[in-house]
Amino acid sequence: MKLRHLLSRISMEIRLFISMKTSYRPSRVAILLLLMIHGFTWNAYAQSTVTIYPSKDNTIYADNQSNSNGAGEVFLGGNNGNSFANRGLIAFDIAGNIPAGAIITDVTLRLHCSNAAQGGANPTDFELHQLLEDWGEGSSNAGNHAGPGAAATTGDATWLNNFFDGTFWTTPGGTYQSTASAVTTVGGVESYSWSASGMITDVQAWLDQPAANFGWILKSTEANSYEGRRFDSRENHTQEFWPALTIGYTESNGFTPLSLFSIFPQGLYNGNGGLNKAKDASGNHFPGNIADQVTIELHNGSNYSNTVYTASNVDLDVTGSAQIQVPSVYNGSYYITIIHRNSITTVSVNPVSFGSGPVSFGFDSPAKAFGGNLLADNGNYLIYGGDISRDGVVDGSDMADIDNASTGLQIGYYPEDVNGDGIVDGSDMAIVDNNSTGLIHFILP
Ligand SMILES: [Ca+2]
Ligand SMILES: [Ca+2]
Ligand SMILES: [Ca+2]
Description:
Blueprint: H1 3-19, H2 28-43, E1 46-52, E2 56-61, E3 67-68, E4 74-79, E5 85-91, E6 103-116, E7 124-130, E8 150-151, E9 161-163, E10 167-168, E11 182-186, E12 190-194, H3 197-208, E13 216-220, E14 229-232, E15 244-251, E16 255-261, E17 279-280, E18 283-284, E19 290-300, E20 307-317, E21 322-327, E22 333-340, E23 346-347, E24 352-353, E25 359-362, E26 375-377, E27 380-382, H4 396-407, H5 426-437
Parallel strand pairs: 16-25
Antiparallel strand pairs: 1-15, 2-5, 3-8, 4-5, 4-14, 5-13, 6-12, 6-14, 6-15, 7-11, 7-13, 9-10, 16-21, 17-18, 19-20, 19-22, 22-23, 22-24, 26-27
Helix pairs in contact: 1-2, 4-5
The structure holds calcium ion (3 copies).
């Protein structure tokens, strides 16, 4: 079945289900389709993991500045016995292995140390730094020992050249970011992992701008002699020992899930961390665990008067939670605004960043609402009720609305029914009266 047909079938089934005009019960196929759609929604932000091997790796030598080891089975890092530094260069094809637009969540580099100076007696910190200039891997091969390196061939990186023998590093020894992206202490012969938030930043940048992906330089702190380590390269005859970069990422597939929690319109609050279901003349107005509906707006983070996205008729469940899928074209920072049919419009204290994964936000403390505009109730915080006219203030005009409706014995799902029990009466007036005395009004950025 085509997705469009499937969606229209589901939409029809839902409309029938909600209308309740007949003794309609959703068919098994409808329930199955709803489950499928639910699963589809969750999978819309799928987590994936991939492990890739280097696109190139090499060694540069401080003492033999025209040597290299492009095609060798190993690369080196750390100071040798004469306190000359060796540095490893390593790069991975990120954009060729991760879909564009993905969000990087985890990065781990595993290297196999196959030889350590003095048996690894001096555990040494090895740092990964982001390289800022491109470099090459030629056909030089220093063999298994690799210590002094071999004469560089065309295109090899050396201490002086990023591409032998035509172009030079801006900074001899490699041009790299001074702050390390990750540090791991290396002792004896075994496998080691580097994993830190700086590497996530690097890989995300390389995915988003492949032309700036020059990989990392691996170097020790270069403070002592005899701290050299030999690591297996991508040319090693044992694939198990190749450098391996494991990357976790999520794909938005067009939507960012927004999960809102602790949305408690005062009138519906049950006094115990949940909401009563709004009623009409014949009982619960909404099916299932839906308490009421709200409108969720995203407003420009630097100009609140600009509404960039609106989701209307969003189900608010009895736990005070609501979920929407925000099109991922909205990837900036936005004020989240909650609009309820008879409550004070309430706004997040700051713009919330979209575009880097699922967003979760709750009005669970005054510090989360702009202007601290929430009502404390035994450890929970409520959205002020009683703005029936939806003009941003609870005052005499809202009282007049209730007065008129209650005189007419209004029963049903009406904005004048502030506490949602299906009847407009004095209990609704009490909420409006209190909040009007407190001069409750909206506070917008
Ligand atoms: Ca190599
Ligand atoms: Ca009002
Ligand atoms: Ca009422």
